[in-house]
Amino acid sequence: MFLENTVNHKEQFGWIEVICGSMFSGKTEELIRRLKRAQFAQQKVEIFKPAIDTRYHDEMVISHDANEIRSTPVPAAANIRILALGCDVIGIDEAQFFDDEIIAVCNDLANSGVRVVVAGLDMDFKGNPFGPMPALMATAEYVTKVHAVCTRTGNLANYSFRKGSNDNLVLLGETEEYEPLSRAAYYRAMREVQPKDEGKDTTEEN
Prior knowledge:
Blueprint: E1 15-21, H1 27-40, E2 45-50, E3 60-62, E4 68-70, E5 72-74, H2 78-83, E6 89-92, H3 101-111, E7 115-121, H4 133-139, E8 142-146, E9 148-149, E10 156-157, E11 159-162, E12 178-181, H5 183-193
Parallel strand pairs: 1-7, 1-8, 2-5, 2-6, 6-7
Antiparallel strand pairs: 3-4, 9-10, 11-12
């Protein structure tokens, strides 16, 4: 999956690991597991998350299974570059909510010898690539895609279906707002939603 010891020790560069998937797929769980292993190895670890994510706790990164690790909420990606000085390993949760500068921040840290572990949604509720995640996945050395279980078919799920009618791209929520669906189930669910918008007059009044 990924290497923690390089073969050529003269090359002192770090690397980027991306953990991606749908809602309820275990992204944060895997992020916490990797970071706790690094802490156990006496490495200096810092974890960051977007300040807007206060679903479980203001400062803790907490998985759906209630595993947790202390983190530093930051309003923008630029803050991570400043606060990461002297660290061996950097963890970033919910990376899709950060601005595009997160791409340069992660690469700068990796280029300076830091191991960067990033977790985030790869697609939004419309099934489109989410924010900076595609670029992070493209520049990362290691990408792990985890899956949830489809609530309607029992198959592997890689889509996050939004149950409500809120069309905002960013909507923090849990099982009340989202459910993980397989490709087939997601396609059927979106077909069921579309008729609600058909027939509406979308012309502008002059």
